[in-house]
Specification:
This protein has about 80 residues and is mainly beta. It is built from one helix and five strands; from the N terminus they run E-E-E-E-E-H. The chain has a three-stranded antiparallel sheet, with no helix packed on it. The termini are far apart. The model has no long low-confidence stretch (mean pLDDT about 85). It binds FE2/S2 (inorganic) cluster (FES). FE2/S2 (inorganic) cluster binds next to helix 1.
């Protein structure tokens, strides 16, 4: 699995992205992240988007599931 990126959906929480990765923002700026994992907000309440800051807990975020509904890349 070396070199692969794994995205794990946490129940009522963030997406955990595991693996070395590079973020590219809307302006095209890239930032290399060498951490073992990062948590990305999926509740919309984080003050540090795109990262999770734990606000989902206080906001009472309830995800419907996080299971796959479509093939990757499908609209
Ligand atoms: S998922 Fe954690 S702050 Fe949004």
């Amino acid at each position: 699995m070396a070199g692969e990126v794994l995205i794990e959906v946490r129940p009522n929480g963030p997406y955990l992205v595991k693996g070395p990765l590079t973020f590219k923002d809307a302006q095209g700026n890239e930032q290399r992240v060498d951490r073992a994992w990062v948590a990305l907000c999926r509740c919309g309440h984080s003050k540090q988007k795109p990262f999770c800051d734990g606000s989902h807990s206080g906001a009472g975020f309830q995800a419907e599931g996080g299971e796959f509904h479509a093939e990757p890349g499908a609209a």
